[in-house]
Queue: 3 jobs
Job 1
Amino acid sequence: MENLDLKKDFEKALKENEFIVFLQPQFDSRTEKLVGAEALVRRIIGDKLLSPDSFIPLYEKAGLIERLDTYVLEEVCKLQQSWNKKGFFLRISVNESANHLSNEKHGQDLIELLNKYDVSPEFIELEVTESAVIKDIEIAKKAHKRIHELGFITAMDDFGVGYSSFNMLKNIPIDILKIDKSFLDGLLEHRRFQIILESIVDMAHKLRILTIMEGVENRQEIEYLKEIGIDIFQGYYFSKPISINEFENRYI
Ligand code: C2E
Ligand code: CA
Ligand code: CA
């Protein structure tokens, strides 16, 4: 699609509420109790459910992603507000794209949105990927500092697949490391892979950073990951991303 058509189509999708937030639950590795959820967007057109991989990259290129991320955050704030009224509190993470972060006004925009719905920032986690950060480490450093000072939790998504994971870790004070699911491929068969993962978890803990393993699909993985001290699990073994309705039926 041409940029203009893409933009028109995006506006239509926003106006007609075609973007829907799904939630994937996260569990404490020791107790296996619910400790959080990740907001993952889908688009519904008629009876079709489009996966974010089919539209997010296009929106990134076309400069539309910031608006989508803000929309998702606002949906999450509305949800938090309704849960809080019922006395239910849960940390929800949202994905943040690169450009957003470096925008100086961004932190303030986030706070305004939270104030509108009376949500406390400690219940919102911002996930960024390292590619979002490496473009300019100095800007990213400042942005993280600001966001932290405002009380948000920050997580680094897809850790370990890019070129600069460690450079980023060295410079940016984050709270949570989300270890990419590709680390699970062959993990139980290769001692070499295990040593690398164990060292990452160790390092994170020494830096007082929590670790989330994403993409856990079976019990053997879980038993091993518990042993090496992963803090939080997210993956199909526990649940796929589900609609808010289903999430509430299961967990509230
Ligand atoms: P991500 O942030 O790495 O999200 C995790 C993806 O892994 C999700 O795909 C989730 O459904 C999938 N997943 C979770 N558990 C398992 C598992 O056990 N096995 C396997 N094979 N996969 C698992 P999803 O929902 O299709 O999202 C794809 C990507 O789209 C996300 O990757 C994220 O980068 C992007 N995305 C989704 N929502 C948003 C959004 O609101 N804003 C932005 N900027 N990006 C988003
Ligand atoms: Ca994510
Ligand atoms: Ca991820």
Job 2
Amino acid sequence: MCGIFGLITNEQNLPVAQTIREGLERLEYRGYDSAGIALVHNGSIELRKKAGRIIDINKDGWFDSMQGEFGFGHTRWATHGKPVYNNAHPHVDCTGKIALVHNGIIENYQDLRKELSLRGHKFSSDTDTEVFPHLIEEFMGKGFDLKDSVISAVKMCKGAYGIVVCHADNPDYMVVARKESPLVIGIIPGKTTFCASDIPAFLPLTREAIVLDDNEVAILRPGKVEIYKIDSGEPKTFNQFQVNYTMDAAQKVLDGKNYKWFMHKELHEVPRKIRDQVGVPQADLDSFAKTIMDADHVFITAAGTAYYAALAGKYQITQFGGPYIQAILCSEFVDALPEMPPNSVVIAVSQSGETADTMEAIRYAKEKFGAKICSVVNVVGSSLTRYSDEVIITTAGLEIAVASQKAYCTQITALTMVALRIAELRGRLTENQVANYHQALLDSADSIEQMIIEEGKIKEIGLKIIQSENIYFLARGLSQSAAMEGALKLKEIAYIHTEAYAAGESKHGPIALIEDGFPVIFVAPPDQTYDRLIGNIMEMKSRGGLIISVVASFDERVTEISDYTIRVPIANTIEAIETSIVPFAFALQTMAYFIANEKGLDPDKPRNLAKSVTVK
Ligand code: M6R
């Protein structure tokens, strides 16, 4: 988490501070509790930072009016130390000549800090980051140049970092380094070099990009880059590539319509993104499916919403005749699996492709046990795509709202495509049957389009529970994914306490909380779980629960026993029912959006969250 944006240029008319501030604003989804900028100006460091959001901090052009030749900024998601001025980045050394921003966590910072303090260094923050400028100061004091001082400093640090450093006495370059935290470089050859936590941050300025790999350090000069290996200090040859996506997705406009929030706009993009996903390249699908089929053991891992998509994928692959898959949250992966069996495959699911927990899980599986990694990931060129043996790229495109929704919908669609391909390769489904399922997936996009037209109905149901403090989401089988996703969405953007449970499990404890009017939301598609779910609805209803059910448009029996229903327009066919998880979940994502909006909350930037969680 945290966003970093920096630039160094020889173009006289490029407003350095303003361009950095604008770059940081494009990265605010990574954290937004404080922000700061450091510039090198006439042999000294000009530094401004404050708690709060950039738009508020920059009122009256506080950032934009900074003077300097080059520099960088940071938008923070607090890990070590409260979101206050002292802990905001950039941080400086004792001389005030070295400034630095950091994304990641330094695990041994307490020891380093004690040692540095004993040697006389003064710390002004509670952050782990602040050890960096002081370590660099020491190495520069020993006569090392800035690059070699950075290399020596990072070698002393355990943990993850993407850092950018400048020194007031070095007027023509800055240094970046990375390990397990993203950092990319953009370049206008001969003129300007940018560094940022992700590519879209510099996309309005250049399409030429360079990816810095783990354990690498780079010297950035105007329009010129040198990369070195941290371990050996050897220079590295690298590729510059052209980014081929556009920034249209970064506008709150879709089909000529202006939106108040990215989340709303991105929900409306879901149908077209699903259709794109059904068109996943056959070659990618084949090698992904075959790698899974050739494995003796298959695991699936992810975090948050991506984990719920992974759970749906696990169900789909197994239900369509593929192997049994063990799902493990990526943050639990290492502890849950002290040993992994030979010939294992790990399927990793991620929007950003940078989630630290996900990366830790797959590195562990691959490096320690030789597991193959198959990933379903949205961001092209992310760490996960580069580390995987097989990749399916989801077609969600740039997702700006912190609460992920179009990524979830495309991840499930992608995994369902894999499930169908495995079924076909194993002879469980004929080519014609698979074609019918593909059509059903395309129809699910139509179903969502219909719900969008009538989204006012979903909002109306949302208003019934807007004042609730606690809500249960119950479902069985595959639909648990939708229940968990609905519960998480409402929790993270509308700040309502929710819990998702397997409906059958609810009588083993959660039912104790049910009293008159306690809202219980059931995800009730007409699949093989339907009859048993009705039993669970009755258990809640007879204790006074307010029953809200998400049902198929042709539903009768659950409708009869529910107080309110959200109706999902799907066909009454096996194919439509077995591929209806995305429209069912979409209904709940939409309801969460309307509740948050109605409460006057910002669904795009919920408190305490960041879109890309690059700390463990
Ligand atoms: O980038 P990833 O898909 O790996 O991110 C995983 C989770 O951090 C993410 O889904 C998170 O749960 C979102 N806030 C969900 O809306």
Job 3
Amino acid sequence: MLARLVRRFSPATLIAYGGWALLALVLLGGTLISLHQSRNAQIKAVLARAGAGSAAIEQTMLRAFEALQTLQTLAQTRLQLVDTGNSDGIQAIDAQLKDTVLRHRFGIRDALIVRRGWPDWSSETGHLDHPLDPSVTNAPPEGADGMRLDSPTMSSPGGAGGAADAWLFKTTWPLRDQSGAPAGWLIVWIDPLAWSEMIRPLTSGPGAISMVQRRSDGAFLARTVNPRMAMREHPLTTDPAFARAVREGSGTMQDSSGGVDRLIGFRAPPNVPIVISQSFDTEMSLADFTRLRRIVLAVVGVLVIGALVGTRLILSNYLLRRRLGEQAMLDPLTGLFNRRFFTDIMSRRFQIARRSGLSAAVLLVDLDGFKQVNDTRGHPVGDALLRQVAERLSHCVGADDVALRLGGDEFAIVRLCHQQRRDATALARFIVSALSKIYEVDGYHLRISASVGVALYPAGGEQLNDLLRSADIALYFVKADGGDAYRIFDPAMEETVRTRRALEIDLREALVRNQLEVYFQPLVQLEPRRVCGFEALLRWHHPVLGMVMPGRFIPIAEETGLIASIGEWVLRQACREATNWPPNTRIAVNLSPVQFERSDIVDIVASILRETRLSPGRLELEITEGVVMRDIGDVLATMRRLQGLGVRLALDDFGTGYSSLSYLRSFPFDKVKIDASFLADLHGDGGTIIRAVLGLCGHLHLDTLVEGVETEEQLHWLRNEGCTEVQGHLFSPPRPAGGVNEIIANVAARIPGLPARTMVRS
Ligand code: C2E
Ligand code: MG
Ligand code: MG
């Protein structure tokens, strides 16, 4: 789970969010802790207030009991005066008694002195106008010498206490005679509602409640909230606040047993049988604080969320930009780094190499035969093939290597290595073999190969550009040798390339400086033997190098595009020359694939035929299979249009390269020129192949010509096998236009069976 999360987010995201989460946690934690502390302080303050409140009520209560005690003292004095018959004293005492009761202090409603079982004195407040309830006069106090405190009852008319609908509770005090023996008691009725009113001024605050309860069972004697109702309530002896007050005497506590959380201060004075408490509603008491807390938390929350959202925005923006940057550096087709990244990665690699004392190597990889696949199978197949190539390349390289696609079918690998030459060589060899294995794309089984040019750092160049150029030169040499191999750059290559480049520069001038010349080599028909045509072969008279052969400069002309103008020039020269020859003599002209691909080739041929007035049937265009392997549809169309002009088409150099026999059937050739290479092995495979091709061409009614015939023996063998034409030094090497008539005469004059030496040589 965590691992998946870690993988899903980039390190930058994780750090940013992790940092924020931590910060938010600290902020939140700090806020909560300080809020908690301030809440505790607040609670403490409220508890102190409750404690002070209950203490104040205690003072009042103690004064009330003091008043009761005064009444008792007066009553006892009166009882003893009655005992001794002191009537003056009695009168004075009565006045005092009456005064105390009538002043209604501390909620005293009535008082009654019972002497030796008989009512002796009453406060005559009107409450005692009715006959006394015998239970009142007879009932002895609970303890002989302790006072007794009854719970409030609703006094009814006729009952003790008098007036209807009044709550009263009774306190009973023992009285003694002069000898100290129990002689009666004093009963005092007290109005609990008056007590409630008494403590009310001492009760203020959020949800404040003050109560006075009987210590023995918790019966309410006074209560600031709903005092009337309270009198009816069942005492809550299990109330922890009450129990604790009874146990501990005084203190404060927080309690929520009643459903509402309350902060309570309580007092249980030792000499009076009551318990006093004052409490506040916790929630109400802390309302201000709660509001403050809500605001603080909201502010903190907004801060945290805002910061998070901000971070997210900034981060996603940053990540997006980074991803876009990466995408700009990635090749969309293969997912490899692209050319834009090349310079960057190379300079970084070199930095690492320099710092760590490692070497580096650059490998340029170019696919052989990719263009054909792309042209014949279509671009989707080509793209899929490139993806597979990229995949194989990625498998070839190590973790420290970087593979890039430079574009088209060009790839590069930058490798850091210890054993530079060995490492680079091994990798290059590995790549060449890996990329030449069969590919399966869309049901096609495709085979291509790869050429790899390697440049080592720093031998192949100190600077990036030098190194790249070196690798490119090495690659060029691989390509020139037919590809499917690797070469490591070596400075001697540069010399070769330099001369080639110089040649290229000179070739651009060759045409206008009249350095080109068309030579002609006879094509000899065997039955009957005669010169049936000439092949036009180009020569370059270089001012310094002397005669340069086409094998050396045609590829340059093709690469630079010069072949278009040069080829057209050759075609025109050749056709013009041919018009001077016997009418049954053809002219064969080589067409480069580059020329053939140009859309205007048919127009050029047609216009030259018109211009030179050469009969189209006398022109034979030689094309190699390099042409045939391109886009079949286009090739066929061009061939048909050329044949439509009346021009003949020959397949040149058959037997080199791929040479599929199916080409012979698929394309409308008039003639096949079999490559000279098979002649070397006439009695082995070479002979077998020539025989097979001759046989097949015979079936397909194609003319056949074998190139490079140099000996009588070869000629003899070929004639026996039914070859229709030959070409080679045996009859004549290519010669300038002026030699044509001589050649024709010589071949015609030649008696069959004569040795080759008698033939014309240049
Ligand atoms: P290709 O069309 O196959 O021409 C035949 C080549 O074989 C010529 O080489 C010719 O001189 C050579 N050859 C003929 N008989 C013999 C022989 O008995 N022994 C040996 N060893 N070689 C023989 P060349 O003239 O050097 O031309 C080489 C290639 O250059 C040609 O091969 C052709 O593909 C290309 N080429 C020549 N001229 C032109 C041109 O005007 N345009 C184009 N596009 N290519 C040309
Ligand atoms: Mg040719
Ligand atoms: Mg040829």
